[in-house]
Amino acid sequence: MDTTERSRELHLTVANEDYLECMVRIEQEDGAEAGVRSVDIATMLGVSKASVNKAVTALKAQGLVEQSHYGKVMLTPQGREIGSAVWYRHRLIRTFLVQELGVEFDRADAEACMMEHALSEDTMARWLSYLEQQGITVER
Predict the structure, then answer these.
(1) What is the CATH number of the domain that holds 106?
(2) What is one Pfam family matched by this protein (predicted)?
């Protein structure tokens, strides 16, 4: 089962996927493998800390994150897998929009954020294969 099917099976919302993606991005950018602070998630997504706490509670119930009382948020392996897949789709779509269609980066980034949730891994694999045939690479 691919991560898009798993997201649907878990009834993850677009917002849930955005939180997982955000945590993966913070981990990668800051080397925060010991967990991510709620305030950093709130800042990156432009939401309140209360919104982060509500989302973390929902993601904990689904086994996608762990958090001790007022501690850092830790992705579970399944949460990291889904978040990483969403972040990868985001980068692939953004790269295509910028390099192939000439869309301005900020607009491409915002539109990729909307599109990343709708495409299956199969479609993304086919798109990646096409891009590679065109000489375009996207870091995994």
Answers:
(1) 1.10.60
(2) Fe_dep_repress
